Amino acid sequence: MAGWKRFFLIAGLFNLFGGTMGLLTLNRPYLEAGMPTPNYPFAFQLLLTAVLIFGVGFLMVSRDPQRHRGIVWLGLMAKSAGFVFSLWALHTGQLPESARPQPFIVDLPWAVGFALFLWRTEPAPFSSPSP
Predict the structure, then answer these.
(1) Beta strands in 49-106, from DSSP E residues, in sequence order
(2) Among residues 127, 3, 129, which one has the least CA distance to residue 65?
């Protein structure tokens, strides 16, 4: 289980770093790609805040992967959706060609890792709370 704990620690730190940097440099990637900045920065701020919250969740998983297995399911769904929607945005021209590696770096590896954890490990046995 130590390997999974390290994996989720890295996943949590990755999300915390990415969310923080995204919030601090909200317009920079658009300007560097020669694109207009978002008209509704609130949507991106909300997304990046969710990235930060997931980072906290993954850190919780790193402490006790079996106990926080539900967070892994949520992470798998979020990373899978991020991968699919990023590919769609690239395909429809909503993201520049320079963003082509993004879904293969930011979402797919984590989704695969989360799926492997869920597939290869058993859920913690159910125990009722103590009175």
Answers:
(1) none
(2) 3
Amino acid identity of 124? A
Question: In angstroms, rounded to a whole number, what is the distance separating the alpha carbons of residues 105 and 121?
Answer: 24
Query: Using an 8 Å Cβ cutoff, are 4 and 121 in contact?
Result: yes
Phi, psi of 83 (to 5 degrees): -65, -50
42 residue type, one letter: F
Give this prediction's pTM: 0.84
Nearest alpha carbon to residue 17 among 68, 65, 58, 70: 58
Q: Can you read off the two tokens belonging to residue 34?
A: 């020669």
Q: What is the pLDDT of residue 6?
A: 97
Cβ–Cβ under 8 Å, residues 78 and 89: no
Q: Strand, coil or helix: what is 54?
A: helix
CA–CA distances in Å: residue 72 to residues 33, 56, 67, 116: 33, 12, 10, 10
Q: pLDDT digit string (tens) for 64-96? A: 999 999 999 999 999 999 999 999 999 998 887
Tell me the C-alpha distance between 87 and 48, whole Å.
Answer: 19
